[in-house]
Structure formats: structure tokens, C-alpha cells
TrEMBL record:
Domain ABC transporter: residue ranges: 4-231
UniProt keywords, alphabetically: ATP-binding, Nucleotide-binding, Transport
Family affiliation: Belongs to the ABC transporter superfamily.
CDD domains, sorted: ABC_Metallic_Cations
PANTHER family: METAL TRANSPORT SYSTEM ATP-BINDING PROTEIN TM_0124-RELATED
Superkingdom of the source species: Bacteria
Keyword ATP-binding: yes
PROSITE patterns with a match to the protein in the record: ABC_TRANSPORTER_1, ABC_TRANSPORTER_2
Protein name: Metal ABC transporter ATP-binding protein
Keyword Chaperone: no
An example molecular function term from Gene Ontology annotations: ATP binding
Cross-referenced InterPro entries: AAA+_ATPase, ABC_transporter-like_ATP-bd, ABC_transporter-like_CS, Metal_Ion_Import_ABC, P-loop_NTPase
Amino acid sequence: APLINIKDISFEYEQTKALENISLKVEKGDFLAILGPNGSGKSTLLKIMLGLIKPTKGTIELFGEDSKNFKNREWVGYVSQKSNSFNSGFPATVEEIVAGGLAKKTGLFHRLPKNYKEEVHHALVAVGMESFTGRSVSELSGGQQQRIFIARALVAKPKVLILDEPTVGIDHQNVQSFYNMLASLNRDKGITLVLVTHDVDTVTDKITHVACLNQTIHFHGFKDQLHTMSD
Ligand code: ADP
Ligand code: ADP
């Protein structure tokens, strides 16, 4: 079964039609970019994939199971747009932040597995940040912080990693190397990625699939792949 199978969904807020008749599959190993102007429904589509909101019409299956019945949310990793503006007010280290992705709630407490340092190290290697283990996250650049939050999601070994405009806080000259890192996660480590972005020019040679949301094309006739670029 596809990792994510969205079948002819629509979503309306009280006043606004945010999505209309969208169908979309994400298969293992895909690197999907969701493009579209502001207000075209990108965030709404991500919220539906994350199970945060239910479509007004249509169904979504996660790993072959109707999302209505889907319990294991840990299978989907998510890095929000604002994660890199994180400021805890205390000097959390890179290791502490990434280890947070491994913490299992056991009653009132959060418990880390015995081998957490090793797991954290692997995740940091994957994002090219292993030499920053003991550093305070607040001292890092926007791009470095974004990599730390990706490591935090990866350490939980999600089946798919969803990123909402991950380059928003990143200096222009570091955007290319950030996408190179994502491409290597996808190509070399087989991580399935779903990304909302405006960086069309930078992502075209990295992604395997593209979905364009805009006022005129609401995925009408969208099948497994849509190799159409707009804007
Ligand atoms: P994008 O992420 O592409 O900018 P959104 O999914 O945020 O698009 O929004 C799609 C449409 O739905 C827009 O017209 C937006 O104003 C509207 N919308 C988004 N969130 C809400 C909400 N919570 N309540 C009402 N309307 C919303
Ligand atoms: P993004 O840039 O990711 O699309 P926004 O900054 O547009 O996010 O929206 C931030 C939050 O505000 C989201 O949770 C979205 O659902 C909500 N929102 C967006 N548009 C509206 C709207 N017209 N009415 C109410 N809430 C909205």
C-alpha cells in the first residue's frame, strides 16, 4: 500500500474552500514537493496528512489504514515551519533536543532508551551535524537549527518525513547545501520526504514528484505523478 493515499478529498473552513477534489499518493522512497502560491491550501493539505484535521469529503489512508482508525502517529515525522525559531529560554544542547525525539511517555515521565546517545549520533550524522552534539541550540544558525529538528524527527524512524517550508529561516547562500542534505537523505538513506516549499528552482533536480496547488489547478485529474510546474 502507498504510505499516504489521499482519495478525492476536499476541505472547507467555515467560509473558505481550501482544497477541492485532491488525489495524491506518496510511495516509499518518494521525494514530493508541494508547490503553490500563498492561500492555495498547502498547509491545509499537510494538516490532513498529519491527521490534525479531517477532510470534509474523501478519504485518506496512512500505511493502508483509514486515517480515522490510525493510531500510530509516530510513523509520520513532522518539522514545522517555525521549529527553527525555537527558543527554550534555557541552553538546551543539540543532543538534548534530538534525544527528545526518542523520549517515550511512560505515565508522568519521559524515558529515553539506553542506547540513546548512539541513536542521536546516527541521526546527527544523517543531517551532517554530528560535530555539534554538545553545543547549545540557541547558538546555531537558522539552517543548522533546522537540521537539528530534522534529526529530532528522524531519530524516531518515521516512515515519512513531512517538512513545512524548511528553508524559511535559512540564509540564501546555505539553501543549496540544505537541499543537498535532503537529497542525500532521500537518495542514500531511502527516507521518504514530503516538502512544502517556494524554492522551485532549487528543488527541481532533487525531487521525484511535484504537486502544484493553485487557484486554477486543484489537482484535477492528478494521478500518481504530476510533472507540471507552474509559477
Ligand atoms: P497555504 O498554506 O498554501 O498558504 P492554507 O492551507 O494556509 O494555504 O490556506 C488555504 C485557504 O484556507 C486560504 O484561503 C486561507 O485563508 C484559508 N484558511 C486557512 N486556515 C484557515 C482557518 N483556520 N480558518 C479559516 N480559513 C483558513
Ligand atoms: P502558512 O504560511 O504555513 O500557510 P499561515 O501563516 O498562513 O501559515 O497560517 C498560520 C495559521 O493561521 C495556520 O494554522 C492557518 O490554518 C491559520 N490561518 C490561515 N489563514 C486563516 C484564515 N483566513 N482564518 C483563520 N485562520 C487562518
